[in-house]
Amino acid sequence: MPRADATAARRSVTVEERLFSLVLALVATEIGLTKGEILATVQGYRQRYSRDATNASLERQFERDKDDIRELGIPLDVIEPPDDPGSNHNLRYRIPKGLYDLPADVVFSSDEIMLLKLAATVWREGSLSADSRRALTKLDSLGVDSSDPVLGYAPLLRSREASFDPLNKAMDRGVVVSFAYLKPGETQSRRRRVAPRAIVLHEGRWHLFATDLVADAPRTFLLSRIVGPVVPVPGATFERDTVDPAQEALNGLDALLHSQVAVLAVVAGSDAEVRLGKRGRKDAGQESQDAQASQDAQASQDAHGATVALHYTDLTILADELAGFGPEVIVLSPPELRAAVLVRLRTVHDAHHDNP
């Protein structure tokens, strides 16, 4: 076995990667692939496939994967060969592309098209791994057109935080990591030792959901506050979740977001009113809270201008943003947010004050 293939064979392929590769292959084929073709070519199967021995365990895995795909709501066609009816060996499998086409009456505005194009920037051509390229070569020999766009692209999330990739790798491998974390208001970072469970995007910011092994409790960290490298802890591993930790993380962040409301007085017609007004929200569970906040601010509205009730998750980040609007925004509540904004404005004033 060539060295590259031997290395690939030893590499563990995750369930998610195997299912993703299987879906890509079944979408790409028009005529369908037989079980043997799938096991011999698709990433996650081919590493364990043997042409000279039975592949009973691999076939059982494929049967389970078929059920998983259907449970995800993905339609899976099974095509019986007309010249060999009743033969399970020559059944062909495919995912019909037509079921994913948009209805003819669905159209997008220019703004929506722009947003779709921005979303598409997380996809990059030519990012397939060497293993996937070898699989494509084999699929080509079976008559599958590997120039199909669904196989020519692979998802690639771009993140400005340097900690994103090492945390993601540690999470996939079940490896404990440590990093220096700088909390708001502190001048010295503290080293955290965690088992990373999920990385989620919430309100435009990346968060790490992890188990803090020192505190023995779940914690959420902003990736932008991780300073320095993410370092694997030698010999320290953890069992990966059997449930979806990402959803647990998002639920916690949503709960925090809905529980905190800032009431702001903004200058009518200002940039602050336009930008912050669009983010003001009325969630079903927060109607009464927002209404009370608006009543508290009503007495100040005539003096300060329009009033905006804004939910937030991180007081420090919101204070940084509001200070950037200068005199266009006055924080009416909560008091701690108002104090944080005033500190920032005074710092800017002092930095620009004329020295004698």
What features would you highlight for this structure?
3-stranded antiparallel beta sheet; 13 strands; 13 helices; 356 residues; alpha+beta; single chain; disordered N terminus; WYL_dom; SH3 type barrels
Give the SSE map.
Layout: H1 3-10, H2 15-28, E1 33-34, H3 35-41, H4 56-71, E2 77-79, E3 92-94, H5 110-119, E4 123-125, H6 130-141, H7 149-152, E5 153-155, H8 164-173, E6 175-181, E7 190-202, E8 205-212, E9 217-222, E10 226-237, H9 245-259, E11 261-266, H10 271-279, H11 287-304, E12 306-311, H12 315-323, E13 329-333, H13 335-352
Antiparallel strand pairs: 1-3, 2-3, 4-5, 6-7, 6-10, 7-8, 8-9, 11-12, 11-13
Shape: elongated
Total number of beta strands: 13
Question: Which range does the strand content fall in?
Answer: 15-25%
Structural class: alpha+beta
Helix amount: 40-55%
- Lateral arrangement of strands in the main beta sheet: 9-8-7-6-10
Largest sheet: 5 strands, antiparallel
* Rg value: 27 Å
Low-confidence stretches: 1-10, 120-130, 141-158, 281-303
* SSE run: HHEHHEEHEHHEHEEEEEHEHHEHEH
Number of contiguous helices: 13
Question: Mean pLDDT, rounded to whole units?
Answer: 76
Organism: Cryobacterium roopkundense
Domain WYL: 164-227
Domain WCX: 272-347
Biased composition (Low complexity): 288-302
Description:
By secondary structure, the chain is an alpha+beta fold. It folds into 3 domains: 3-154, no CATH class; 164-246, Roll (SH3 type barrels), CATH 2.30.30; 260-352, no CATH class. Helices cover 42% and strands 22% of the residues. It has 13 helices and 13 strands. It has helices spanning 3-10, 15-28, 35-41, 56-71, 110-119, 130-141, 149-152, 164-173, 245-259, 271-279, 287-304, 315-323, 335-352; strands at 33-34, 77-79, 92-94, 123-125, 153-155, 175-181, 190-202, 205-212, 217-222, 226-237, 261-266, 306-311, 329-333. Strands 9-8-7-6-10 form a 5-stranded antiparallel sheet. A 3-stranded antiparallel sheet has the order 1-3-2. Mean pLDDT is 76; it is low at 1-10, 120-130, 141-158 and 281-303. This is Transcriptional regulator. Residues 288-302 have a biased composition (Low complexity).
